[in-house]
Amino acid sequence: MGFLWNMFKITIVGLIVLFIVGSIVITVLRIMHLMRAKVEKYRSYIVERIHKKSKNALPADTIKELREQHPALSNMEWRMLCNRVLLDSNIRISKVLRGYKEEDAWIWIGDN
């Protein structure tokens, strides 16, 4: 009887640990999904903004200015966003003059 009781306790503890680990994995995957969705939303907005500014011959926003306009993004989300924007074949990094300094900016090189 003692052996069965010990096996039952080990099984229950194992199931609890499995439940906790499964919950952690599901939570992490959910957070990653939400982060990707947020970055994708901002990416499409920024790509559209860069295209409109190019199409209407307006001065390009620097990457620093865009970062200041979107404080809701964490540093990791901003890095993901920068990488995703650069994957667009119509966008390149260029230098623009701001006062007396040259700063990096995304410019549209595709067809207008």
How does this model look, in words?
This is Man1/Src1 C-terminal domain-containing protein. The chain crosses the membrane at residues 12-32. It comes from Nematocida parisii (strain ERTm3). With 112 residues, the protein is α+β, with helices and mostly antiparallel strands. The protein has a single domain (2-108), classed as Winged helix-like DNA-binding domain superfamily/Winged helix DNA-binding domain (Arc Repressor Mutant, subunit A, Orthogonal Bundle), CATH 1.10.10.10. Helix content is 66%, strand content 14%. It is built from three helices and two strands; from the N terminus they run αααββ. A hairpin with a 2-residue loop joins β1 (91-98) and β2. α1 crosses α3 (75-87). The mean pLDDT is 89.
Structural class assignment = alpha+beta
Poorly predicted ranges: none
C-alpha Rg, in Å?
A: 24 Å
DSSP strand count: 2
In CATH, the architecture is Orthogonal Bundle
Portion of residues within helices: 55-70%
Secondary-structure element string: HHHEE
Report the sheet-strand fraction. Answer: 5-15%
The CATH topology corresponds to Arc Repressor Mutant, subunit A
CATH superfamily: Winged helix-like DNA-binding domain superfamily/Winged helix DNA-binding domain
Please work out how many helical segments DSSP would assign: 3
From the N-terminal CA to the C-terminal CA, the straight-line distance is: 80 Å
Silhouette: rod-shaped
Number of domains: 1
Strand order of the largest sheet: 1-2
Please report the first level of CATH classification, the CATH class: Mainly Alpha
The overall average pLDDT, rounded, is: 89
The major sheet is characterized as:
2 strands, antiparallel
